[in-house]
Amino acid sequence: MSQVQENIIMVDNPRVIKVLNKRFTKQILNCFTDTSKTAAEIASSVSFPKEKIYYHIKNLLDNEILFIADTEIVKGIEQKKFLPTAKEFEIKGEKKTKIKITKDQSKEKKQEEENRIKEDIEKQVGEKRIEALRKINERRRSSDKRLTGRREKLARRKKKKTIFSGKDNRSNQNRRQEKENRKNEIRRDSFDRRFIKTEKDISQEKKENIFPIQNGKHQSIKYKNTLLNLNGVNKAITFVHSGNNVTFLQATLGISGFQINRINNYQLPIKIKNHEIRTLP
């Protein structure tokens, strides 16, 4: 790998020629000027993700198309700058592939591309839309559908019409009549049958009320205190802070209620040896 950029390099290696003929390789080479660039600057120039540009740069380094021109330490991290090994790559038997593009040429190319895009947009706006013409028969019926001719008697699916010999229960059911339609004013004012309780609904409610659930049943204080004792609640303490006075109370839980064992009154600030308590947490 050469550390100085040459003017022209003759390329005869098929592997290197294949890499040079790639469109993305040409974009990377064309983004260089006389100054070297870092990987982030190369990715920004070709509009490519920074995380994925390192693979392509490593490939170009392995094929000696790029070389490390300079290294710089930024915040304790070594940052490399790259340059093409030559200003022009000449492939044997083909025209020269130039990679050096001046700033004026790049500006002219951008301007030409912008003008071309504007012309395409104006041309598209000026063109008249051609509406699709369809025949009435094609619109009414698809070509893959069956013809309109009726099936013959032998080709019908249901050859014999059976007569229903069972019992018709529909007349015994509570069916809607014409006057019950929602479009009629009388039907709107009447109650909806869905909300009218039937004998079946009433019998179901009676079954559910055989063992009614009593919510909010009154429980005595002795019963509650017994449950607290069984759950391990036997003693209690409390502090009452009023102004500068603090009242401490200690009690034991019995079946009939709390039994006070100890009451102490303190006045703030409380001094204990070298410590002074001005308020309770």
TrEMBL record:
**Compositionally skewed regions (Basic and acidic residues) per UniProt:** 136-152, 167-190
Instruction: Give me the ranges of the annotated region Disordered.
Output: 136-190
Keywords tagged on the record? Coiled coil
Give the residues annotated as coiled coil: 96-127
- InterPro entries referenced in this protein's UniProt entry, alphabetically: WH-like_DNA-bd_sf
Q: Where is the composition biased (Basic residues)?
A: 153-162
Identification of the protein by name: HTH arsR-type domain-containing protein
The record lists the organism as marine metagenome
Lineage, broadest ranks: unclassified sequences, metagenomes, ecological metagenomes
